[in-house]
Predict the 3D structure of the following.
Amino acid sequence: MSEISEPRTAGGAWLVVAASAVGSVVALVNLVNDGNGIAWSFGAWLVLVSSLLVVVAGVILALHLALSGWLRGVLAILLLLGILGTGAAAYFLTAWILLVAMGVALVGWVIHVAADPSPLD
């Protein structure tokens, strides 16, 4: 008799990827929009680069690439710092949509840490 098992997916990590991808688009729009007061500033560039790095880290965690347990833990901690740092920069730049996107990414990070299956399960 075969076992019925739940699908194995990294839903929290994919939520981080989706939210930070939306954040990257918002950061890009804020970077090039001359009417918002932060266009072409260092902070706008910083937020764009940091949100792109959050996307990359989220994809690595979501795809369960060949990472050891401690390396996945380090990447998860760095991802948390990236989400919090990008959110703080978004707050200081008054980029509210980006701040909400980082809040959603934070929820995805918590789901990933608390509920997503490990690659060894």
Notes: Helices lie at 11-32, 42-62, 69-92, 96-115. Residues 11-112 form one domain. The longest helix spans residues 69-92.
